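Translate sequence into structure tokens.
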Amino acid sequence: MVRYGLGLVLLAGAQAYAADALRVGSKRFTESYILGEVVRQTAAPYTGSASAEHKQGLGNTAIVFEALKSGSIDVYPEYLGTISQEILKHTTAVSLEDINRELAPLGLAAGIPLGFNNSYSLATRGKEKDGAASVGTSAGAELTTLSDLAQHPGLRFGLSHEFIGRADGWPGLATRYRLPQQPVGLDHGVAYEALAAGQVDVIDIYATDAKIRQYGLRVLKDDAGYFPRYDALLLYRRDIAQRFPEAWRALQGLQGKISESQMVTMNAAAELDGKSFASIASAFLTPATQSATARQAEPGTGFWARLVDGQLWRLTREHLLLVMFSVLTATVVGVPLGVVAAFMPRLRHVVMAVVGVLQTVPSLALLAMLIPLLGTIGMVPALIALFLYALLPIVRNTSIGMEQVPGGLRMAAHALGMTTGARLRHIDLPLALPVILAGIKTAAVMSVGTATIAAFIGAGGYGERIATGLAINDNNMLLAGALPAAALALVTQVVFEIIERLLPGYRAIAHARR
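Result follows.
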């Protein structure tokens, strides 16, 4: 427990030491990644001795907004309609002035409109070659408006999880247009492919999505005027102008600089051409003559190029830190809890119930809850979440291992005058060691996989590549994150097998127990 507390203090201190950095956030979809890079690269030359960092892919609106409120990031690209209806919970459109009045008590503000409107809408497949509609409607019938959807209850809706839950998303849309369909949740990055494959009939889209034209989709007209304007702008902390005055002046130069067609082109460069977000932003911000070198240096898009893109060692270090520290602290706390559960029957059910319930909380939900509680994103909430998830197998195996120690040995120890502490150290724990170690091994292997979720709150690790691959539907990027995580899980298994062989008397104890 002491090590756990000390580690958190050190991590919090490290974040405080880097507090002078200008931190840019972004959500987990292509356009937000790109705009985050545009903001970072615009500000970076003007931050003086401080650095400009991009915390990529911070989950959904709720997570990135909590990160902004807590000061974990300073600015991120957002949309007027999202601020008005999703964040401030208005049911009708409000002006930017009214929005800023409400944001002021939080120390936040919205401004610097970037120049384009990226509205939500719904889309279906275009006509088949024979002229019949391709979404399950009657021959010759076409869906052209959102009102038409109510006439076809059999249509299959595949909507992004955020859209399904947003105040300005599916609930209000279904009510306004009286839609009887029940949508299923789909990641936005794979929705287009699911629609093209005929697995769903209707998806939610952004107006600047590059794949609308690629797949020849029909965007349905919002004939009831449900969706507000989603003008892209920056949502930021009010103190950014004082902390980084020159960088703030540079960011103001982005006002009105990005047209809808330019945004579509940049999204296409990421999703269709496989270019990196950093190179896309650089090409936009620099003249064509200066960006030629950057284009020539663009890495390949194959699996091997994605795997060894210069980030592998950093991601491995971050992933190892997440796993090792969380499992170590869970062992320090979990083994004593397991001993208590074994020797104190009245507390056993309480201890096992608590650690069992912690295991059932969805990982992303737990991470989202920890951000406002801790006032930060990154390593600290990720480590706490992984620590909580690792407790159950360690506590359970410790309790089981202790309960399986033969009662005759305990009676003999008592007859020899051994104290409870001495018996625990010299008899109970050594005999329970094989089962305890099996629980720690299970926790470690589980943590390798669970740690990939930590990327959604800026904690790094292999999950960065998985999140990016999902956002742009890049299978090579996905594999470049998933395969190293799987390899690390296998290595972890082997390391524990070696530890078992090296522990004095481990095999003899395990054999004696059998």
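Note: Strands lie at 22-25, 52-55, 75-79, 108-111, 120-124, 157-159, 184-185, 202-206, 218-219, 232-237.
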